[in-house]
Amino acid sequence: MRTHQLVLQWIEGQLSSGQLALGGRLPAERALAEQLKVSRTSVREAIRVLEAMGVLRAGVGSGPDAGTVVIADPTAALGSALRLHVATSHLPVKDIVETRVLLESWAASRARPESPALAEAARLLGQMDGCTDTEEFLALDIRFHLALADAAGNAVVSAMMGSLREAIQDYAGRLTGNLPDWDSTAARLRAEHRGILAAISNHDGGSAAQLVADHIEGYYAEAGLGAGS
Amino acid sequence: MRTHQLVLQWIEGQLSSGQLALGGRLPAERALAEQLKVSRTSVREAIRVLEAMGVLRAGVGSGPDAGTVVIADPTAALGSALRLHVATSHLPVKDIVETRVLLESWAASRARPESPALAEAARLLGQMDGCTDTEEFLALDIRFHLALADAAGNAVVSAMMGSLREAIQDYAGRLTGNLPDWDSTAARLRAEHRGILAAISNHDGGSAAQLVADHIEGYYAEAGLGAGS
DNA sequence: TACTTGATGTGGTTGGACCACACGCCTAGA
DNA sequence: TCTAGGCGTGTGGTCCAACCACATCAAGTA
């Protein structure tokens, strides 16, 4: 057992037992090192790992933003892990898109019409109507799809959706250059978004799921390869 | 930009550009530190992160197993990340089980009967028949379900399935104690496994998906809370 | 030839030092 | 009295130098 793993175990234990909760603060690195009888280096290595996993956030200085505090950002961990393994060509982009279709169509079929996340999605849709900038449109589009995922009320699916999105974000951005006519594409995407939202509002989960799948795969087909709107 | 993140970027760049591939070796820590004009500490912190993400593996000594080499274990990264966030109570076990049902039933519906992974699943099923030890049975059960997921041919879904499993493994293990009669449960599980395999062999993906969902949710209901066989 | 022994290179760990930063007290001035 | 500045204190960020344990390989020895 390597030293930093001992520190990891200790922190995970504190989290499991509830002695360290969301928003809680870890002891200072030097204090924790002394407490666990290890070097500060080992403590720092453990903190780095948890930071990369979206469990901790380290801040310098003093005050409320300082120190090492517990956060909860599962998307960050899953996202960077997926991105790295895509980089090693071990996770094909095709599989990522396929998984995204799977998760997102499920989320659409399970989305509750009264969910606040769905209201947020509708608001974003309104913003996209008056949007002329391509980059801004895509940013809003991402948030729209994430809100859709949130509306299903499954935190794991939401986190995975976000991470899949993050993993292929650069890739998807490059694809927009392949589009022959961005304006017409944007118009189509807007219309499809409205259709999805309408299906969910009508409690027609089956249609919503199908529309989402078509929506993503349609973009996939049009842009030539791998990442939907 | 913190120093270790610079090292992370450099390594990710090497991976993306293909100059560092699966099985490749990183320069020695001291050499890499000098090359990037940073301290060995920062290099080590970056390596720790990538190690936790299942991208690198560090080995001491000399020879083939020594040095820092590129591996590809997406499951490790996703699994520990999910486990940690479950520990913070930010990802409900209920959502994990629900996601597992979603992914696994999809995998069953897409599994190709001629897949080698499916043959492996059948082999494992045979081993489980002559198995009397509870713990060994559960270990084989895990491998059976993972083989099932692999048979769909989607690396992302396989990795996510494995990570979900890992995240709630301890939890699932504790649940077996709740069962009133393990022997009869094991017999039922075996029969259900055979049914799933048969449906896939008959190219009846729809039935297979439904059987898998029932299989997992049945165990969930019987054990009282959260993790299927 | 077979065994021992040391050199070499790897990651693993440690302690100490210094830096930049941000807050909050505490003093000097208005 | 009230205000504005400076300085002390504690935080993470970085670096360095040294040592350890380990595994291999080559040279030397019986």
The residue ranges of chain A in which pLDDT falls below 50 over 5 or more consecutive positions are none
Average of pLDDT of chain A: 94
Q: Give the structural class of chain A.
A: mainly alpha
Structural domains of chain A: how many: 2
| Percent of residues in β-strands of chain A | under 5%
CATH class of the largest domain in chain A: Mainly Alpha
Largest sheet of chain A: 2 strands, antiparallel
Task: Give a written overview of the molecule.
The structure is a homodimer of 229-residue chains. Chain A has 229 residues and is mainly alpha-helical. Chain A has 2 domains: 3-70, Arc Repressor Mutant, subunit A (Orthogonal Bundle), CATH 1.10.10.10; 74-223, Up-down Bundle (Four Helix Bundle (Hemerythrin (Met), subunit A)), CATH 1.20.120. Chain A contains 11 helices and 2 strands. Chain A is elongated, with a radius of gyration of 21 Å. The interface between A and B is large, with 48 and 47 residues. Chain A binds a DNA duplex (30 and 30 nucleotides) through residues 2-4, 28-30, 38-42, 44, 47, 58-68.
Which terms summarize this structure?
homodimer; 229 residues; mainly alpha; Arc Repressor Mutant, subunit A; two-stranded antiparallel ribbon; DNA-binding
Q: What is the compact description of this entry?
A:
The structure is a homodimer. Chain A is mainly alpha-helical and about 230 residues long.
Topology, element by element:
Two copies of one chain form a homodimer.
Chain A lengths: L2 H14 L12 H8 L3 H13 L3 E4 L7 E4 L3 H14 L5 H18 L5 H14 L4 H17 L4 H13 L1 H7 L6 H20 L3 H19 L6
Antiparallel strand pairs in A: 1-2
Helix pairs in contact in A: 1-3, 2-3, 4-8, 5-7, 5-8, 5-11, 6-7, 6-10, 7-8, 10-11
The first copy, chain A, binds a DNA duplex (30 and 30 nucleotides) through helix 3.
